[in-house]
C-alpha cells in the first residue's frame, strides 16, 4: 500500500513540476462537495492545465483526507461574448484518500480520476468559477468504482487564466 501511495504522489509531483516550469496562470481557491478543501490550477499554455486538490471527504463511513492531481485538456470557449470564457474540460489524474482508524473504511484508497467540468473565467477580474464531475476507478486496496463532484472558485495570480 505504501508503494501505491508513493507512486500516486510521484505522479502528482511530476505533473506539478512540469506545469510550474512554464506557468501561464496560477489559480488558487476553494472547492465544496466531495471533496471539500483547497484547489489549485496551473495553465501551461494553450488549452492544457494541471490541477490539484487537498481536502476532506465526508461521505462513505466518515472523514478521509483527499489528495488529487490531474492534467486537463480544455475546449475553446463555449460562449461567444467577450465577457469571459467558458471552456469544457476533460482530464486524467490520480487520487489518494487516507481515512482515520475509527471507521470501517480502509485506511487508504488509491485511484484514477477522469474529471469532466466547466470553468467560467471572468474577463474583468481574474476569478474562475468551476463545476466538475469525476468518475474514479479505485485500484488499491481493491478495485472498485466511486466518484467525486465539486463546485468552487479560483483567483488567478498574475492576470487571467490562459495569459
Task: Describe this structure as you would to a colleague.
The chain has 163 residues and is mainly beta. The protein has one domain (2-157): Porin, CATH 2.40.160. The chain has one helix at 2-21, and strands spanning 25-34, 36-45, 48-57, 64-74, 84-85, 88-99, 108-113, 116-122, 127-140, 144-157. Strands 1, 2, 3, 4, 5, 6, 7, 8, 9 and 10 form a ten-stranded antiparallel β-sheet that branches. A hairpin with a 3-residue loop joins strand 9 and strand 10. It is elongated, with a radius of gyration of 16 Å. The model is unreliable at 13-23 (pLDDT under 50).
Helix-strand blueprint:
Blueprint: H1 2-21, E1 25-34, E2 36-45, E3 48-57, E4 64-74, E5 84-85, E6 88-99, E7 108-113, E8 116-122, E9 127-140, E10 144-157
Antiparallel strand pairs: 1-2, 1-10, 2-3, 3-4, 4-6, 5-8, 6-7, 6-8, 7-9, 8-9, 9-10
